[in-house]
Amino acid sequence: MAVSERGPRERMVFSAAQLIRRDGVAATGMREVAAHAGAPRGSLQHYFPGGKEQLVNEAVGWAGRYAGNRVARFLAALPEPTPGALFAEMVRQWTDEYEAAGFAGGCPVAAATVDCAQASSSTREAASAAFATWTGPVGEALTDMGVPEERAGALATLMISALEGAILIARAERDVRALTAVARELGPLLDATTHATTRATTSSHVE
After folding, report:
1. What distances in angstroms separate CA 171 from CA 67, 80, 181, one per listed residue?
2. Does residue 206 lie in a domain region?
3. Would residue 190 count as lying in a domain?
4. Average pLDDT score, the chain
5. What pLDDT does residue 205 have?
């Protein structure tokens, strides 16, 4: 959905997410959000009676849903889905952005966690839920590829943790080196989890 096709409330949540991922929570004010969304300032109070904290929490929730929904799109783009290929697509989203537009933006969920985890329990909970919303589809995708169900959740957490860390390093270095490194090094390890399952299944059939 294009920005212009969103309703005013959706535009403000989207704008808050974009500003948070660029500037962090503390530097993102209600006035800046309204201007970015092209909305009257008075509408913020109407749609977000809980003020900035409510808006931030909803922006974080939007970001988690966006990341989770992207998993299916990544899989659809792969001729042969594998854990390593999925992770490479997750990474490529960021390398493409950084190479095309620079390193201004990061993950809004991570930014909100850093800025608000201690100051606001509701934002911490929103960030935790957002990560779960993202981790769930990754874990399900891994299971569908043959990763043992008891490992899929942990591996999904590993993938997202590695990606978030590489994003942070990439922004600090103004270089995609860390992103390409985690994709290159982690990919074969992820793919090996399905190979191990295949070997174990074949062995049990032989016996």
Report:
1. 19, 31, 15
2. no
3. yes
4. 91
5. 44
CATH number at residue 154: 1.10.357.10
Using an 8 Å Cβ cutoff, are 48 and 59 in contact? Answer: no
Task: Determine the Cα–Cα distance for residues 113 and 97; give it in Å rounded to an integer.
Answer: 22
Instruction: Count up the domains in the chain and report the number.
Output: 1
Q: Is 104 helix (H, G, I), strand (E, B) or coil?
A: coil
- DSSP-derived letter for residue 3 is G
Residue 204, domain member (yes or no): no
CA–CA distance, 200 with 182 (Å, rounded to integer)? 27
Structure tokens belonging to residue 132: 């779960």
Among 90, 80, 84, residue whose Cα is nearest residue 192: 84
DSSP 174: T
Chain segment 41-59, per-residue pLDDT in tens: 888 889 999 999 999 999 9
- How many C-beta neighbours within 10 Å does residue 15 have? 23
Encode pLDDT of 125-163 as tens digits.
999 999 999 999 999 999 999 999 999 999 999 999 999
Q: How far is it, in rounded angstroms, from Cα 78 to Cα 22?
A: 30
